[in-house]
Amino acid sequence: MDDAIVLYPGPGIGHVVSMIELGKLILRRYSHRFSIIILLSTGPFDTPATTSYIDHISQTNPSISFHRFPYLSVDTSSSTCNIVAVFSEFFRLSASNVLHALQQLSKTSTVRAFIIDYFCASALPVARDLGIPTYHFLTTGAAVNAAVLYFPTIHKQYESSNKSFKDMPTTFLHFPGLPPLQATRMLEPWLNRDDPAYDDMLYFSELLPKSDGLLINTFHDLEPIAVKTIREGTCVPNGPTPPVYCIGPLIADTGEDESNIAGSVARHGCLSWLDTQPSQSVVFLCFGSNGTFSPAQVKEIANGLERSGKRFLWVVKNPPSNDKSKQIAVTADVDLDALMPEGFLERTKDRGMVVKSWAPQVAVLNHPSVGGFVTHCGWNSVLEAVVAGVPMVAWPLYADSI
């Protein structure tokens, strides 16, 4: 039987892209040894961009195959729990699909490794029961993962207080290898111990050291202290730490990013616009797949860009919905005329470009006209800017931005 490595990405286009890039990396190094099979859970998190990107990969990378699970519905209407709890429930419900897929794949291939996303932790015991070596692929940096690994220890230290970290503004938490962190500035799912997401994050953190290895999308010279701290076992004081592999920077290459995450094989118009701009003259503003601002904030950003007099390329998404009962946003076209200050687009048309929803970020960052990047500090964006050599203005918004 052929040898296969099975990958299981988490929710959202960023996690899918990172896992596919990992698959391509494995194939580049071991093209004659393994085939790559990617398990895809389909549900309310899917977008047309994700579907289009996967179709593109299927057509251009014949050694990567996809196994799609049946559509799984999950309640996204609760306004009281964090989106992480929704993700966790979704992947818990997917565990039976994972079991069936691994059993079926094992009939035709020898599954040498099963590599799972952080959010797919519920699949770890499934694979271990089948005797399949299982590794976590961590799409955030070593510093965040040092905190994640140590989180069960922090939880025990403060468990008796019965207080949530959101209610402890004068408390500073001490994670190995990291500066002291104010309790109220923890990752959002860690702030409220009454939120189901808190228990989910604790569960994820407790399972990480039980895998056969941790693959982190970073490189040693970028985060030497955090990498050293994890490898020495300081972050898991009550048990062994699995082997740690720094496999980054793992990012989408310029050509593919330019061609198809948004579903078009044509060159994006913003790249043609950048071709007409002076070298290193354009400030690029982009805030990730979930980075949104209120209408008032959008107008303030626009006013700042106009008053700066600088050239800019700005990716704008719809503001967050006022309907707090919906955890999963419904994609709708962006009405720039309604969002922007009156006359802004006309007054800045000679030195600025506003793009709706998405731009080919890797291609933009590697364009010679771009001289700066205003970013939400998602780890993929940080790595892409580092590799491109573009200075960043940090505007941490969500997720892995501690």
Automatic annotation (TrEMBL):
<dbReference type="GO" id="GO:0035251">
    <property type="term" value="F:UDP-glucosyltransferase activity"/>
</dbReference>
<keyword id="KW-0808">Transferase</keyword>
<dbReference type="InterPro" id="IPR002213">
    <property type="entry name" value="UDP_glucos_trans"/>
</dbReference>
<dbReference type="InterPro" id="IPR050481">
    <property type="entry name" value="UDP-glycosyltransf_plant"/>
</dbReference>
<comment type="similarity">
    <text>Belongs to the UDP-glycosyltransferase family.</text>
</comment>
<protein>
    <submittedName>
        <fullName>UDP-glycosyltransferase 88F3</fullName>
    </submittedName>
</protein>
<dbReference type="Pfam" id="PF00201">
    <property type="entry name" value="UDPGT"/>
</dbReference>
